[in-house]
Amino acid sequence: MPQIVDPDIERYAAEHTSPEPPELEAVAAETQEQFAGRAGMLTGHLEGAFLRAVVAMTGARRVLEIGMFTGYSAMAMASALPDDGRLVTLEVSEEHAALARRHIEASPWADRIEVLMGPAIESLARLDGPFDVVFIDADKTNYRNYYDAVLPKLSKRGVILIDNVLWSGRVLDASATDDDTRAIVELNDVIVADDRVEVVLLPIRDGVSLIRRR
Length: 214
Ligand SMILES: C[S@@+](CC[C@H](N)C(=O)[O-])C[C@H]1O[C@@H](n2cnc3c(N)ncnc32)[C@H](O)[C@@H]1O
Hints:
Elements: H1 7-15, H2 22-34, H3 44-58, E1 62-66, H4 72-78, E2 86-91, H5 94-106, E3 113-117, H6 120-126, E4 131-136, H7 143-150, E5 154-163, H8 179-192, E6 197-202, E7 208-213
Parallel strand pairs: 1-2, 1-4, 2-3, 4-5
Antiparallel strand pairs: 5-7, 6-7
Helix pairs in contact: 2-5, 3-4, 6-7
The structure holds S-adenosylmethionine.
């Protein structure tokens, strides 16, 4: 994935962010080994630390993740939950989930994490809120569907985080016609005009929108 933040700045930011817990280092390393071509999907140290901070600062007890991959962000967020907190994560790929499950089971946060397999839109229809934090990070063409489905399930002071909202900078390319870029551009436009919410689009890694209900 092309980096949009200057790599030296990215490195400096990571070096001045609290260190990655060993469990997250381990899952990131094995993801790099097993899924080298897909490892760019990992949120990684800096964004993982940001997600963890949001969960901690909001005092979240129920977290929903759409798009688990190998479990990095699920574990990062679950590590900030209280002991009786719960994180539900949605994933469609058994291959990704197999690696995730091993690392989740070996972590101190296994009791807090529930993995739901299947297309996220179907799992979402069966899930009741309220959720305090929702992290959307799956197939981009369904982002709008996920946003519409989770907003009514948000707790009163809940927040939605959406990943890849700068899409390697392609959101600036007015001639980009691929489905993923169009979906992200359209959703960013919808959210900023949605008077039910307040949003801040942060240029962390590939862009993260932080959304709260008004
Ligand atoms: C960008 S990765 C998630 C990265 C993860 N949050 C992390 O930080 O490591 C997107 C994941 O969404 C999954 N996915 C794609 N389409 C999906 C769908 N329709 N339902 C559920 N999961 C889906 C993919 O298999 C992939 O594992």
